[in-house]
Design goal:
Number of strands: 8
Distance between the termini: 73 Å
CATH class: Mainly Beta
Oligomer: single chain
Number of domains: 1
Radius of gyration: 17 Å
CATH superfamily: Immunoglobulins
CATH topology: Immunoglobulin-like
Strand content: over 45%
Largest sheet: 5 strands, mixed
CATH architecture: Sandwich
Structural class: mainly beta
Order of helices and strands: EEEEEHEEE
Low-confidence stretches: 1-5
Pfam family, one: fn3
Protein name: Fibronectin type-III domain-containing protein
Length: about 140
């Protein structure tokens, strides 16, 4: 009996929703997002990559992995961006945390434009990314 490959295909997730950057200072900002409208299966994590916009140098790559309450997970050894290899971090969360609004605060350099990429991960792999560019303030900027 011949089997169709389509029965084994799992589409990757849509982009996370409501991706935003707030609390911008000269040395940090906070990235927030919600789960995708359609994960096309079980959502098992997120991949967050922050890089300098000008020269594409990786600042951090964060794997947020569902470690409790999910049927599957992606391995901690997975490195999507070879340029981030030394800057990769892992965070294990339970399913409730994974499906809630996510926040991540990054430590950065002043007066620099960054590209933030967030992707949801399902059994099909890394999904489509939502990319946002944001500048940190120059050092010494004061809010009035």
């Amino acid at each position: 009996m011949k089997r169709s490959l389509d029965s084994f295909y799992i589409p990757v997730s849509e982009v996370p929703t409501n991706v935003s950057i707030s609390n911008v200072t000269s040395r940090s900002f906070t990235i927030s997002w919600d789960k995708p409208r359609n994960a096309f299966g079980e959502l098992i994590g997120y991949i967050l990559i922050i890089s300098s916009a000008e020269d594409k140098v990786c600042v951090v790559e964060e794997f947020i992995n569902c470690s409790t309450g999910c049927k599957s997970a992606f391995p901690n050894q997975t490195v999507i961006s070879p340029a981030c290899k030394e800057k990769t971090k892992y965070q294990n969360v339970d399913k409730t945390e994974l499906l809630s609004r996510r926040n991540f605060t990054a430590s950065l350099n002043p007066d620099t434009e960054y590209t933030v990429s967030v992707a949801a991960v399902n059994q099909g792999g890394k999904g489509h990314t939502e990319d946002i560019k944001k500048n940190t303030w120059e050092e010494g900027r004061i809010l009035i």
